[in-house]
Amino acid sequence: MKIEVVKIDDLTVHEHHLDIIYSADKFKFSTKVFYHDLSFSYLKEKYSQQVIQRIVAHIALFEGMKLCSLFPKYYDISEIAEYLEKPVLDLFVKIYQGVFAQHWYENQVTDYQQPEIIFSGSLGDSNPVAMLGDNHTILAGCGGGKDSIVALKMLEEADIPFASMQYSHTVYGKADIQHNLIAGVLEHVTPIKKHKISIFDDFIDFPFLKLYFPENSGITVPETPVSIFESLPIMLSEGYNYLCLAHEKSANTGNLFWDKLGKEVNHQWGKGHEAETLMNNFIQDHLLYNFTYFSILQPIYDFRIFKHLAKYPEVLPKIHSCNIQKPWCKKCPKCAYVWLGLMATFEPESVNAVFQKNLFDDQDLIPTFQQMLGLSEHTPFECIGEIDESRLAMKKCLEKGLSGKALDIFKQKVLFDSSIDWQHIEEKYNRVYTAEHTIPDWIFKKIEKQL
Predict the structure, then answer these.
(1) N or C: which end of the chain has fewer CB within 10 A?
(2) Do 47 and 132 belong to one domain?
(3) Do 310 and 286 fall into the same domain?
């Protein structure tokens, strides 16, 4: 079966949520985006209906990108075209090609670059407006993982006021469970305000793909880019000028170079510096000119982030990073990688109290650890660090006297390689890269010591 047209059928703005209806040929799907402390009628009065319709149209456009996992020929955006501008179509293609390279690779698709975007009528014009007010409070995303809490601690210790933004998504399970877990992390910092977004998506939640497209590797969601647009109503409501996420320098490195396309495949592309710059520039130029988006952890690698995290052992039982079964499934690459980083930097007993098993001895995870160490075709398609970063963490584990099958493989196939310059590797991952980021100068000067 092939899908000809993915289409935005309807976009309705309710008082507290957006209701977006999509179709893929004869199939219908719904995405609902709930804002727990936001009134859209208030936003329309504060700005105008036109401004808010433009913002939510961009949300609908990028939420629909997940349906392009079906490799449609066309993406029909007629329903919202009048609220979009031509440059957003160029941005859509760039985001799609960056995020979906992994999807092409997994499905061995080499003759598809993107859906053709079609619409009736005319596109609108670029008309950036100002967010009203001059609120220098930082809106800081919190997903509940190690990066989030380190970023929030940095802001707090630098005396930079921040509000938190957390969101749940169908892909990660029940909304209440997700929000409660994140609330446990937020207990360890003091945001001036807490915002919540809940996303319900039946395209992801239903067994549609397995039943109708069993040969397809899965659904790809441009999670970070779309979440940037979904944060804008909150920023407009509160007058926040700055959006801060916690994406580390490791996100800029791909999993492999695919010769068939002559292209790097990077699972984390949407979190990387290139995507960050594209998104920030687009929103400033076409939507909100006094908006700034940046990642506070872009100057450092995971190796240093784990070291920062170790300063707060009290948060260890609360953080969670698993995308399969929160807080930890203990079977996926993300769990294995975080376990590795935690064991390298924390007291092993405190990590064992959370995980209650030695993942280095889990036979099912041996192929995953081999991928992390660069002993396979590519690194795992997850949000993890570079090969040398994983190797360095394993070396630190051995120096602590830890043991396990994965560490035995590391000793046999990596550690005894005399050509490896371990001092150079540690210097690389323990540095602060002062130039390769988009953090505003006034913020960077305040947090530089915390980095």
Answers:
(1) N
(2) yes
(3) no
The answer to whether 87 and 286 are in contact (CB under 8 A) is yes
Neighbouring C-beta atoms of residue 361, cutoff 10 Å:
14
Rounded CA gap, 256 and 153, in Å? 33
59-107 residue pLDDT tens: 999 999 999 999 999 999 999 999 999 999 999 999 999 999 999 999 9
Q: How would DSSP label each residue in 223-236?
A: HHHHHHHHHHHHHH
**Number of structural domains in the chain:** 2
**Domain housing 281:** 5-295
| Separation in Å, CA 375 to CA 53, 159, 253, 367, 395 | 50, 44, 17, 9, 16
- Whether 289 and 332 share a structural domain: no
Amino acid identity of residue 149, one-letter, is: I
The alpha carbon dihedral of 203, 100, 70, 327 has a sign of: negative
Angle 160-164-166 from CA coordinates, rounded to 5° = 155
Q: Would you say 297 and 151 are in contact if contact means Cβ atoms under 8 Å apart?
A: yes
Q: How far is 250 from 247, CA to CA, in rounded Å?
A: 8
CA angle at 425 for the pair 144 and 275, rounded to the nearest 5° = 45
Same domain, 269 and 306: no
3-state helix, strand, coil in the chain (%, to 5): 45, 15, 35
Residues 170 and 235 in one domain: yes
- Is 172 inside a domain boundary? yes
Q: Which residue has the tokens 């890269």?
A: 433
Whether 269 and 227 share a structural domain: yes
Q: What is the DSSP string of 236-256?
A: HHHTEEEEEE---GGGGS-SE
Nearest partner of 98 among 114, 78, 81, judged by Cα: 114
**Beta strands 194-201; 162-169: pairing state:** parallel
| Per-residue model confidence (pLDDT) at position 56 | 98
CB 286 within 8 A of CB 278: no
Q: Give the integer Cα–Cα distance in Å for 66 and 220.
A: 6
CA dihedral for 334, 267, 178, 308, sign (positive or negative): positive
Residue partners of 268: CB distance under 8 A and separation at least 6: 247, 250, 251, 252, 253, 383
Partner residues linked to 295 by β-bridges: 245
Question: Quick check: is 436 in a domain?
Answer: no
Q: Assess if residue 451 is contained within a domain.
A: no
364 lies in the same domain as 336: yes
Which pTM does this prediction carry? 0.96
